[in-house]
Amino acid sequence: MISHENSETKYYTFENLSGFDQICHFVSTRKGGLSDNHFASLNTGFHVGDDNFKVLQNRRILANAVGIDILKLTFANQCHSANVAIVNESGRGKGVLEKETAVDHTDGLVTNVKDVCLCVQVADCVPILLYDPVCQVVAAVHAGWKGTLRKIASEAVAKMIQHYGCKAENIYAGLGPSNGPCCYEVGPDVYREVKISLGQAKNIIFPGTKPDKYIFDQWQANVRQLTDAGLKKEHIEQSDICTQCHSDTFFSSRQDQGHTGRFMAGIMLKKPKYTA
Ligand SMILES: [Zn+2]
User: Fold this and answer.
1) Per the confidence metrics, is the pTM higher than 0.85?
2) Using one digit for the tens of pLDDT, what is the confidence trace for 73-94?
3) Which of 58, 90, 177, 247 could be stapled to 255 by a disulfide with Cβ–Cβ 3.0 to 4.6 Å?
């Protein structure tokens, strides 16, 4: 990933997506916001118990830094589902000023509408951004362990193909900072569910250092889901940044015992600057 810093905040972009002029995308950090304590400082989530005014100001700081009008940011009320919603013109800005108007009960957003910035919010779950430069379609996905097992990444690719006629081999993907295999220990219940959902799941879940504990490699699980869906391996960028190891830069739910803020990943098709 590429790091960007100005006087107010710091954010990242994926190397593989940064070469495309037609899109703007970002992954935020917890730097440079107004929130305090567990939410310090650039918490972008309304739903975690932070002061809504500060959250809105934080979103404004981020939007300014990445050069996107804040009213173009579009959010979902995420629920660890495999639901993927198509966002049209009227969806622009949903959930940006208040939680209630966000696209409900959804963990994946897809659009071909310009100037709609699809956003997902995370703290350890995997944020995934997708882009088809041929059909000009973008998607943002929130994949925690539940969403990963429910195959939300595959669902998003399927939606891009079915609804917009995308071809999987044209799609690029970026997997943002999240729980890495260095830290993501799960119990026997998750182990069982991974085995049921992902079959043999070789190299995806394996014994940890403590008895009855397993390491779940949700990066590998999602990369495999995307390559199984037809994406080229060389089109997929994995940030390899673990949120638990880097909880000074990114919110980590596990590191903060569930009481923490959210950082976000967003992607938008830009309107051309002029028309001939
Ligand atoms: Zn780690």
Assistant:
1) yes
2) 999 999 999 999 999 999 999 9
3) 247
